[in-house]
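User: Quick one: structure for sequence A, then sequence B.

Assistant: Sequence A:
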Amino acid sequence: MVLLSVDLIAKSRKHFKKKRGLSFPEYLKTLTHLHFSNKNIEDIGDLSMCTNLTVLYLYDNKVTYIRNLDFASSLTHLYMQNNSITHIDNLHYLQKLSKLYLGGNRIAVVEGLEQLLQLKELHLENQRLTPGEKLLFDPRTLHSLAESLCVLNINNNNIDDITDLAVLKELRHFSAADNKLCSIEELEDVFSHWPQLSLMDLSGNPVCKKPKYRDRLIIVCTSLEALDGREINELTRQFLINWKASREAKKKENNKHTMPGSLVLLL
């Protein structure tokens, strides 16, 4: 079994470029970045001597559990996409974590992030779920991320409902392509809670085929700059807003001239 450890660091020419006058333990303390992607690593060992670690690249490996990172209180970026992780565990010590990449794993429930109050980006695309399973979100995690999370990627996870995500009011970039979202009304309601949303990708969902799909989302997402890879022209947005206002005013006027409750009595 390949273990990420200080011994592996010592054997890596890329990492162990011993600085003049530094012992190996002293050298470990100077490390801020560790690059160990695509090395057949199956587990994380004792790295506690790397006290200044801020960025860890562990993508494209065979890791099944996230562990032994409790020492890394300075870690800001963690790249663990394309492993075999089934649960999000043991991250509560990483209170400076800003970007978390867990795409391409086997995670079914997004949980365990309640202490990560500085997390700005969460990438969970392409989970390898069992047939019929969909990615779910623990409400406690969502509420804890409500004030910080700016980027969320949940592409291709069999998701058919995002109502619970409405609490993420700081979102700026949202990607949920290739899922099973169907309800335009649900999307309008959720997006009305995200006033800063600027980029969104919903391509590959059934809802994209609904009449006026693009027009309706452009109207409700007032800060949106691009939808499904296509830029939004501000003149187009203003035209759609004016058109909607005109229709609503006309409808209101028609209702005003209706005589509700009037009855024709046949004697």
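Sequence B:
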Amino acid sequence: MGECHRMRHLPHNCFAMRKTCLQLLQGCSQQQLLFWRNYLTADSQQQKSQQPELPQTVLSFLLLLSITTVLILVTWPCLRQSLGTNPCLVPNNFALMETTRPISSCDICSAELPVRLHRPDRAGFAAHAYRGRPVLVSGATETWPARRRVNLSFLRRLYARVGANASSVSEDGCQFLAFRSPLESLEEVLEGRVEAAADGPPWYIGWSNCDPRVAAMLRGLYSWPELLPEEGEGSAVDWIFMGTPGQGTAVHIDNVHRPSWQAQIAGSKRWRLFPPPECEKVCRPITVDVHPGDIFLLDTNQWYHGTEVIGREMSITIGSEYD
């Protein structure tokens, strides 16, 4: 009996010490044998149930580490460049955008697209303002002086007149996008280092118009589209996109959190739209040609989109976000 009670002082891994435990059990009664058999069996089962937890935790950690490593390797070249030249620390990278974007409702393509409207008032556009469906509005900018006056020469004179520093566009919260062009700054365009001729090397750029003097003079030539919701709020910064025939943007998706509008001031541009992957069985790709006088409204956070300047004239668009 004394030998049996000594088992109380054994560690919980007694079941693994099978030979020692069996020797000690020889001095136990039938009731004590039953007790220790149940005790050792329960201890063994508990250990077995706990064993997968550590490998599962390690596996989860390794999986997370692998995903993080892949994202860093994919985004690092753009991120390293952005740290030196762009105030946005996270680049517009396809892999990063795809892994972080919200899932879209396929209602964005539950109608004939694009939705085509001709000079709608605010009430006529209200049903489409936040549905995520591409909307092409014709005749919306017929009274804008920008239609007649804004071109590359005008922009060059405007920036020179107010003394705006085109090289500062990428500073102070502004952005310059060269897309697939070999240009590095707005300065190259506004100082005449490239031409607008259709037979020259193609180029296409975009920039956020952050200089208040330039913004004030340009907004005297166009107005906030009257069709947009009255209760909504617009961005204080407008964007200008400009380029020559044959050039444009690669297919991408934005992360601006609000739908956008672009007014075609000069030339023509072709948009190629692709639905998000979760809607590929419901939606189809769309091609939309936008001409002077048109406004194109698109939720660029949901639709993958690429553009190309078509025709023989330079394309100039002015646009912004709305909420």
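The chain has a mean pLDDT of 78. The longest strand covers residues 260-266.

User: Thanks, that's what I needed.
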